Request: fold
Amino acid sequence: MAGERSAPEMETVEVPLGDKVQTITRPVVSPGADFSEEAVIAAARKKTGLHFFGEDEFRQNLRALTHSMETEAALNPFGRVMARQFLIARLVDRLRAQDLFDRHPEILETKLGPMTVIVGPARSGTTRAHRLLARDPRFLFLRDWEINFPVPMPESFGEGPDPRIGRAKGAHKGFLAMNPQNAHIHTLDAEAPEEEIGLLNMSFTSLMIEAQRFVPTYGRFCLERNQRDAYAYMKKLIQLIAWFRKDDPNRPWVLKSPQHMQDLDALMEVFPDAKVVFMHRDPRKTVASNCSMFWNIGILGTDDHNPERLGAYLAEKCLRQVEKVEEERKSIVPPDQQLDVRYADINRDWKHEMQRIYDFIGLEFSEDAQAALEAASGDREARHGAHRYSLEEFGLNGEQIDAMFADYIAQYGIPRE
Reply:
């Protein structure tokens, strides 16, 4: 039929990992996509007819990212196309957000209620704790479609379902079709609670960006730079979401992201009264699971597969995140605003640990809340599925990780899994 878009040609690729072979499927695209800073900014302005981004703090992160993608990531044609599309989409969102801020200045006056933020290494149980708390109807939280598409479209203001929900569902379906293994790593549900890392994508500083491609120079740049401006912009986006939803300004929020392991200083500058729950898990598990997650996402966009290189980088990065948190929390998080929770304890007796969290927050762990969390405790969205991984696949071993993280393991009495 005239006007219909034909389905793209697909290619199937087998990628070895240890003694396994993973099969992925991706579209065949033309080479040479331009994702330079100038090209993507021009494309975003052309697409929207808008020009003003507001603050331009994002440009340093964007510049570091595009340089690393060009010089380190070894992107194949599909990876280059996806990089370009991602950058343009985030810049389009910034332009449209700024247009809303200019036309509705009351957005940035939106009050946000008390914040509880769950922080911990990726794969340490932050998702489970977050999604359990989000089942309590007293809490506000961000949904997957809101963090992926935080800026309302014109149609969003009309009757019927928000079109962004359908966009998120379609994106998840396409992503999992290319590598179904990702379904076992992190549950994707457009309407489920999700971490705010997607909002940091719009300032081009997030572990999600790193997971999609091997960009170590960019990763180290983001880790060592104070990202206060990015977090201040994240707060604006949360205000935008709250304004659009007409949230009760007095209801408490629950947020979470392993991203805050490297940006605790920025988090506390922007949300100085936040209550912070720190999650801890056996580093053998968190490092190996991180490697598997980054691998399964990143193999779509490159043909230069090197699991040992990825393992060495992520082990070092995970250690630096832990060290950075330990350095900063002593001086920037008041003692009565921090609580430590071990993954092993929440697995052994989640009710007891949730009671500790509620006591810390200063909220009653009511019978209704317990019933809501009980219903969620065994759900697939509160637990990861059958995610299989090992350190050895990425050139690492348990004794090496134990030695690297010895001080951290001893400090919190983290048991071996």
